[in-house]
Hints:
Two copies of one chain form a homodimer. Chain A is an alpha/beta fold. Chain A folds into three domains: 6-49, 434 Repressor (Amino-terminal Domain), CATH 1.10.260.40; 63-160 and 291-314, 3-Layer(aba) Sandwich (Rossmann fold); 162-287, 3-Layer(aba) Sandwich (Rossmann fold). The first copy, chain A, contains 13 helices and twelve strands. In chain A, strand 8 (239-242), helix 12 and strand 9 (267-269) form a beta-alpha-beta unit. Strand 2 of chain A pairs antiparallel with strand 2 of chain B.
Amino acid sequence: MTGATLDDVARAAGVSRATASRVVTGHGPASPQTRARVAAAVAELGYVPDAAARALVTRTGTRLAIAVIGHTAAVLGDPYVGRVLTTAAHVAAAREVGVSLHWLPLNDPGSLARLAETRGLGGLVVVNPTRPALDTVPRSLRGRVAAIGVGTPDVPSFDVDNRTGTDGVVRHLVTTGRRHIAMVTGPSWLPCGDRAVEAYRRVMHSCGGEVRVVPGNFTAARGAEAAVEIMARWPDTDAVFALSDLTALGVLDGLHALGVQVPGDVAVAGFDDIAFAGLSRPALTTSTHPVEDIAEAAARAVLDRGRVQRATFYPSRLVVRESA
Amino acid sequence: MTGATLDDVARAAGVSRATASRVVTGHGPASPQTRARVAAAVAELGYVPDAAARALVTRTGTRLAIAVIGHTAAVLGDPYVGRVLTTAAHVAAAREVGVSLHWLPLNDPGSLARLAETRGLGGLVVVNPTRPALDTVPRSLRGRVAAIGVGTPDVPSFDVDNRTGTDGVVRHLVTTGRRHIAMVTGPSWLPCGDRAVEAYRRVMHSCGGEVRVVPGNFTAARGAEAAVEIMARWPDTDAVFALSDLTALGVLDGLHALGVQVPGDVAVAGFDDIAFAGLSRPALTTSTHPVEDIAEAAARAVLDRGRVQRATFYPSRLVVRESA
DNA sequence: TACATACATGGAAGCGCTTCCACCGCAATA
DNA sequence: TATTGCGGTGGAAGCGCTTCCATGTATGTA
Lengths: 324, 324
């Protein structure tokens, strides 16, 4: 009803179904004559191969699933995630595999396993997974799963080198004379932030500064709150480093509302180098990372399935603008 | 190899395939005993139904495709698109239908038709389509297609009311004493901008101002360029309205580089009310629209398939901040 | 005890497609 | 003329699943 089947095409072209299939897929021999007649029938009937039936017999899983973990609104609003999706979709398109997008709740570990188990999956790229969630993925399937963020021994991960990235930013703050540096982290369930906090701690330790960490969640709103908290708790703070540009922008806002001058009174630095970082006033000092490279590597890892590497970290580069 | 089949489950449970299927789908009678044994077998073998095979026989198309038209990097970088995707994915998830994401090139009209023709499609939401592209969609399928942006008589569309939205912003500029107002449009292939330009023209006409339109493309980079162009061409310009916040932010940047004071010398207004609009310095005056409502309505339209409405426009509301 | 009724179950068909295999005719070779 | 090789073709199997239908097997009623 909905559409013509291969049988209809074969009948219309006066050939067998096998021949019609060969012509449509281009997978076997066929005389130019036959080819033309089948093509004509296809055009006339508006034939479109049934993806399900084809997948059933070819057993080819030509779909790249991208799972984004965490609360959706905040997460997709995040330009970082957008860049990941765009790139992964590109890599997939180049290989003619479809892309499916999935929002997985943070607190339903089973959801990732269910997704991974879907047959006919070419690969699965998980954005910002937790390690327990990754562990729910059946062992046999781990070869076709890659993580952007934290990984496991079985699941290769691709991520920014938060440690040296943070180190670079915080050191820059120290170099420019700041000593009372506070840090706004990411959501606690995102383990990738741990390395960043550690790097921050280390720098503060080496320069004798006090460790001042407040929790964040990668949103601008939280940044504004955090700024107020920080200034209330440690009034002598002269720099704030946020592990997300969005949050840093929020900090800028919060500080502005407080009447604090940036960078005069307090320097502010972010992390990610989103498109807006250069547009804020003052323009945000931050650290830029090769998100596209990371996403591409992850997509390739599951689609081309070479040898499995453990965890790959990509360098982040300090971008000095006005805010610090 | 990859996974157990229903036959394996049936064998393991000592029942027929038909019975196993009934238990798994929950679609027929089965004794508690049998049920338990099949369940055990499923658990032990890690059985997961093959989606392709199931789709083949049930003929159920449970997938919502979201096609985004236009150059990908710029488009997904756009927070607007991100909000649309998030919402549509939510609506789909609530109905337990999968989501697939597609980047369609601007100049390949056939690509949309091919996507729409895919069997087993629950619905298709097209973001920012062109009318010609929509016309390539086979008539029989149009009932399950909705557009966000421009539509056709056969394809319902959901969009912001650019006309009154623009009217509101430009009138605000006039009210606050601006007379030499320039406008930066969206990409020329996006017809939704036409109504906005028309509204702008009308306001300028009614207040005797000169019409100053320069092309934009919804990016910040273009906004910065456009600002320079505008000030070079019409040095007495005292306000700039950009049909995208991203572009307006770029205008802010370009003006700043030129040493022009905002809003002192030139007022700037945007459109969309993205998250950053309130964070820029000066905070951006813009117009906010119910993107989530729009995306939800579009997704619902194709998924729930009620009566087809023509085109629905959602009101946009002026948000006055510092820049104008 | 004989019957209808309900429920549980297995057999088998078939969804639309790809692909192995056998076949047929034709040209090239012996 | 008999043989080989090969491109083109159709028959048929089968991918994993759902579901109609027929066949039992326990229950309730006459």
